[in-house]
Design a protein that fits this description.
Elements lengths: L1 H7 L23 E7 L8 H11 E10 L9 H4 L23
Length: about 100
């Protein structure tokens, strides 16, 4: 996957693919205009450390885009162990639950 993403970015100087521990990325502070997490944070054992690291990497005014699985209730063991529980997934607009956000 990393090789394919790197190949897609060939010749571009405004983006890069980095393989790293999510809670300790080997990049300088304030180096990123955008940080994208596509279903990675849910695998991190220390999610708070990941969010601190994202904050460290972003320049002032930078953006953070997250596409991750979220559950508001505990899931049964059979679902937690199923690698593709597609029938239980649904789209949720997270802005609906953030204070101070209006549609």
């Amino acid at each position: 996957m990393l090789a394919a993403a790197t190949e897609l970015l060939a010749g571009r100087s405004n983006a890069r693919v980095v393989k790293s521990d999510l809670s300790a990325v080997d990049l300088p502070s304030g180096c990123a205009d955008v940080v994208v997490s596509n279903c990675a944070i849910n695998h991190a054992p220390d999610k708070a450390a990941v969010y601190r690291e994202v904050h460290r990497l972003l320049r002032p005014g930078g953006r953070f885009a997250v596409s991750d699985v979220v559950s508001e209730e505990p899931l049964p063991e059979s679902v937690r162990n199923d690698p593709a529980p597609g029938g239980l997934l649904r789209r949720v607009d997270p802005r609906d639950r953030l204070p101070g956000r209006h549609r």
